[in-house]
From TrEMBL:
Name under which the protein is recorded: Transmembrane protein
Annotated segments matching region Disordered: 493-531
Keywords, ordered alphabetically: Membrane, Transmembrane, Transmembrane helix
Membrane-spanning residues: 191-211, 223-244, 256-278, 298-327
Amino acid sequence: MARASTSQGIGSTREIDFTNAEEVRAQRVPFVRTPLVPAARSLIDRLRNFFARRASPFRASAIAFAIDQAEGLSKSVGAGDKRVSLAPGSTTLVSLQVQLESYAGSAFHRAEEALSGLDTSIAQESQWLNQCRPKGIIDMMSAHLDRTTEEHKEAILASASNLKSAKDELTVFRKNHGLSDDVKPGKKIDMAVIGQLGILTVGEFVINSLYQSTQLQNGLVGGFSAALLASGVFILCGIGLGVGRQLRLKQDRGRWGGYALIAAALLVAGWAISLLSLARVAGAHGDTDPYGTAQRQIWHFGAILNALSDFTAFSFALISFAVIFLISWKFLTYSGGYLGLRSRGAKIDAAEPDLREKITQAKDHIKKFSDDFDHWLDEGPAVITACKSSIRALAATGDKVVTQFLSDSQDIEHAARLFDAYVRQNGGANIGELWVNIDKKLKEHLAQIRSKHATLVGDAETLCKREDIDDDSIAGARKAFAAKLAVASKELAKAEAAPERAQPTGSNPSVGDGIVTSKMKAPHARTAASV
């Protein structure tokens, strides 16, 4: 049996009916022959009958016994109730007729409902027989492919429109602020950069601690405190240097603020390095207040040169400035080379993967349509065999339904004859006419049941005589659907190429993926050097 696709969302092929035929067949309720009125078989019923004062004269028929229990006929007659009349046209006899006709109607409706259910199932099997043939598969898949292609096109075009809007916004922002393509919009912060900054901070902290701890009297604890303060100052200087480099690109007077911030960051960094170096020298000479001494000497240029004269101090100064510039570079790399540029670049970063995802989904679905079509085409003969076998089984069930109705009719006839004999035995009128009316209704019902059953069997025989699938029709179907897949692929490729046709001026797109042979360009490039 063909597999049933479980994909959801765009392009779900679950609606291809015959792929889940086995599931539907398993959910059908089988017809089981049962009498209209089951015989009393429980222990309680048997005990009640055993201890009853009078044995019911209608135990030979479950239907007659049920009517007698409801009407209380034998009980009233046996007790000599004068209110019970068995004369022609009496209420008692009319009630008996109504009860028997009700059972006749129940038997008819039960059989009719069962045949209607079988007819529905055969119609469903007939639909599957049509669907699983090459032409049926092409018709279903083509309609579904067209609808799915349109859905994917709309999704790709909507995503491409969002990408184009984001790129246009970035282009306009660059133009309004006089920014070249060399000014980077920044990158998305990820775990890699967080790890890099963590390693950089820890390394700087260790270097600061070792630089101070060997000369300060309070040892590693003092070096830890000094390193903590120094690390914080250097990080702030690096960020300040990065912000200053962003501000210096402004076209108005704000650029002077950027230059001022750069100068301030460098001065603060130099002041911090000089202060640490002076404190280190003072501590090495046994000064109990090295930082107080360093603060007093910070304005003496000669003292600063003397403190930085040895190799260790000079290396520390170079490393510290390298760390500050590295922090500044990382800041610009991820926050962008200009204020406000990162937020606009982030929109493009969000739109790019969304468009690629839509394109990938479309490519995968085209492939899935091809695979499913080949699979269902190969499964077609097995589906036809299963459908014909199920149709024969349904027709055989129809025979059981008719047999059940005949059995129900005999039970009702038996109950009517028991009542006729009982009424005449107790001095009542001959109610043979009652049975004539019941027999007439049962024959009318039987004619309808037989007619419906004959139609059902005829339809089943016609369906089972249908020809099987030949190899030529399978080969032709493969060729025809391959052409439809090619058309769908071209339509999706056109939608994928829409961003390239709508490429804004001044952007640097990168190469993206294609569904078939697409040349779509991805959003803005970041190939220029750092600001």
